[in-house]
Amino acid sequence: MLTLIITLFAIQLIILILYLGLASVGHRFFIHQIYVSNLLKLFEYGQRGVERINQELQQKRRNRHNQQQQQQQQQQNGGHFKRTESQESNDRISSHSSSMDSDYNTDSAFDSDSDVDSDDEVPESFRKNCSMTLRLCETQNRLQLSTVMDFTSLGIEAIIDDAVTKRFAAEELKTWNLLTRTDNFSHYRSFRLAFIWLCGFLFRYLILFPTRLFIFIIGIGWLSFVCTFLGFLPETRFRKAIQYYLLIHVSRILSRSFGSIINYHDEENKAQPGGICVANHTSPIDVIILHCDNCYSLIGQSHSGFLGILQRTISRSSDHIWFDRFQMNDRLAVSRRLRQHTEEKKMPILIFPEGTCINNSAVMMFKKGSFEIGATIYPVAIKYDARFGDPFWNSSKYGYLRYWMMMMTSWAIVCDVWYLPPMTRKLDESAIEFANRVKSKIASKGGLVDMEWDGQLKRQPVKPEWIKQQQWKFSQTLLSGLDNDDNNYLQDGNNNQQQNSRNDNCDRNENFIYTNFDVQLTTKVNALYDQQQQQQQDEDEESELLKMKEL
Questions:
Q1: Where is this region: Disordered (predicted)?
Q2: What is the pLDDT of residue 519?
Q3: Quick count: other Cβ atoms within 10 Å of Cβ 504?
Q4: What CATH number belongs to 186-458?
Q5: pLDDT at residue 184 tops 70
Q6: Could you tell me the CA-to-CA distances from 288 to 55, 202, 249, 307, 350 in Å, in that order?
Q7: Within 178-300, where are the H helices?
Q8: pTM (2 d.p.)
Q9: Domain chopping of the chain, boundaries
């Protein structure tokens, strides 16, 4: 029995070594494609089961609701014939008192004699399909309270569906990938789904996880040995050549520890020595994925813990630059070292200008530092397929080892990498404009949302200048609208033609940001109102003079 166990272990070890050897030289296994295609079929089957369960639950809710309505109607109909004389007298008294109250409460929200569904009775700011309207009070020189109602609703919508904050959390999947972290407990409602989930759980934790953990230990040990070995070699052409192949070899082994399946596109555009490679940032494994096809020097935030140990280990073999983003002196030193590195034509530098991990649904603002030195920029777009496993690292929620364990217990990490043509800064282009141009190219190629917001909003509050900038844009938009239609608004208000004014204004843009009204806006509206009032007074005086002449 012992001999059989040793034999099986030796066979598995030989297969694993052969697998890692082929993977380290970039061999693509056909079994990966079969594995991915079968997983997709399994996900589709599970999604159909989830949809069927949801339909059954909705049908049960509708049936329960109908039964409750029928019971209420039966109770009302049955109780109608069992009313006593005392109850009828009480009803007459209550109805009389309610009519008395309606006579005295003239400022109530709804009148019993009025039709609340009529457009003439509903306040204009609450009418359906009506956008922002600026109306002046007919008796007072000020804006009405209902003017801000549309902005309030838009502000609430922005709070509920914030386009920025949701980029710092894992993106919700449209289909269930048989993981408890994304299933919404669907496997508890069906025996078949529960059985499939249990089989997948056992496969991931009893087969994939031990194998990948063993590969990870081998990869970390091999990385430490290679970096230490390269650190003792002098700076020669031979060292650069062996460094290039050994680091790629190590990265390919480490990539197998989380089951990576990488598809590279347009490899002729890979970064060259002396250039800067910029890419969107989703996870620390972005570095490993890009290192599987090229060798880079890294620049980034210094970390502590296990990730800090890795940073110090790889610094023995290459000229990496680590800094603290919150220290101004570090940022200035990084700029000098970055310029010196590119001028000496060393290995290309890999930079993630966003400065933080985004959930691979958008590209946020690029820092301008790497775009100021005038080096050639090699953009790279990385897009992950989250159906097999979400690689996003929420550093505020998970530590690095916990995150790596989640990667090892995922089905796979499938991604596409596009190398874009190199880009250079134009003569009449600022560093910020150049950074935005590169960012838009990456977002377009990777199918990501191009956003202008700073990724550091993940850790820091909104800067006051950003708030002032949005307020200024908001006030300018309102002022431009008044310049175009101010006479129509005032004339319609004086002539009580609010219906025509509402129809003319329903096409106005509703995508405004709720904020305080700017002082310039109130001043301009008041001036327009005074001008209209003065014109009305002049017309009244002229009419009185004409009457006097006729008399």
A1: 59-124, 485-508, 531-551
A2: 45
A3: 14
A4: 3.40.1130
A5: no
A6: 43, 28, 11, 13, 11
A7: 191-203, 209-231, 237-255, 285-291
A8: 0.68
A9: 134-161+465-542, 186-458
